[in-house]
Amino acid sequence: NQIEGLRNELGLVTAALNRLDTTKKRALVSVDTVKPSELKHRISLQSIVKTNQNMLLHPEFMGAVSSISVREGQQVKKGQVLMRIDDGGLKQTIRLQKAQTDMAKTVFERQERLWNEQIGSEIEYLQAKTNYESQRSQLGQLNDQLEKAIVRAPFSGKIDHIMVDVGQVVSPGTMPLIRLVSTKQMYVEADVPERYLPTVSKGTPVLVEIPVLNTSFEASISHRATHVSTENRTFRVTVDIDPSLEVNPNLISTLHIFDYINPKALLIPVSVISENASGDQFVFAIDKNNQAQKVFIQTGYAENGMVEVVAGLEEGATIISEGARLVKENQPVQIIK
């Protein structure tokens, strides 16, 4: 009986101690304070570096290549002579034609003076005029043909590849002569899914990464197409590249489009969010009594494991960041520093 009495007294003492122990049955949790920070939501797409001036120069005259005035890698200016093709005696033909044209001009001018003085027939005057105009036209055509034997740069750029050798016979419609590339009008091009049409426009900030060059740069969208492709439901965007940047055409790049930016977004980790059976999202916040309270929230854009809270939480709120899965509503908690 004495032992039984001691056991009862020990039980009462233990119960009293449990009531006094404020940490008993408290869940151990870590917390975060909700505070504003910048959110930059991005769309990441594969893109390609292009140029408006990447041209294969083809021959417009038949003959053997007589000289090549440039080398691969050389910078050239618009109009500069790159290559000459043997004219096959066309210069001599032009000299003869010029002599005939000069003679026809002399005859015409003489007949014109006589006609103005009312001497000579109108037929002779018209014949001289027609002959001169015909000879002059033929001379112009021959000069145009001779000009085609000279290959000039249609724009300023770099000689990327010379595809023929001196002495090689070329003709229109055959293989190209030279590839000329300008890196002064480079741009990045990508196709964007149509669902982003409302948030992507000219001026939208972007980040371009070119992995093979281990480089990246910030820019903005230069052009957004209005046409949406019926084949893949995308629209095209382009981003101009600063001419001072040394990049190559046709490089694969990654285009990060920042379609939403909020400098004062309330961000919380995606991992702290739970859902009920109805699909409503909630987190556990800590009230002034250090008890866990379920708070329903609405979320917006997510980036890098963080999501924006657009409703339900205010700046300064304390939420459970670790241990939320182990607590129940109104349960006392002990915060681990």
- The CATH class label of the largest domain is Mainly Beta
**Architecture (CATH level 2) name of the largest domain:** Beta Barrel
Helix-strand sequence: HEEEEEEHHEEEEEEEEEEEEEEEEE
Reported for the largest beta sheet, the result is: 9 strands, antiparallel
Strand elements, count? 23
Distance between the termini: 49 Å
Helix content: 10-25%
Tell me the fraction of residues in β-strands, as a range.
35-45%
The number of helical elements comes to: 3
Shape estimate? rod-shaped
Give the structure's gist in a few sentences.
This protein has 337 residues and is an alpha+beta fold.
Task: Throw out a few tags for this protein.
Elongation Factor Tu (Ef-tu), domain 3, nine-stranded antiparallel β-sheet, 21% helix, four-stranded antiparallel β-sheet, 40% strand, 3 helices, alpha+beta, OB fold (Dihydrolipoamide Acetyltransferase, E2P)
What does this entry look like structurally?
With 337 residues, the protein is α+β, with helices and mostly antiparallel strands. The protein folds into three domains: 26-40 and 263-335, conserved putative lor/sdh protein from methanococcus maripaludis s2 fold (Beta Barrel); 43-53 and 182-261, Efflux pump adaptor protein, beta barrel domain (Elongation Factor Tu (Ef-tu), domain 3, Beta Barrel); 57-181, RNA polymerase II/Efflux pump adaptor protein, barrel-sandwich hybrid domain (OB fold (Dihydrolipoamide Acetyltransferase, E2P)). Helices cover 21% and strands 40% of the residues. Strands 2, 11, 12, 13, 14, 15, 16, 20 and 21 form a nine-stranded antiparallel beta sheet that branches. A four-stranded antiparallel beta sheet has the order 3-10-8-5, with no helix packed on it. Strand 18 and strand 19 form a beta hairpin. The longest helix is centred in the N-terminal third of the chain and has 27 residues, at 90-116.
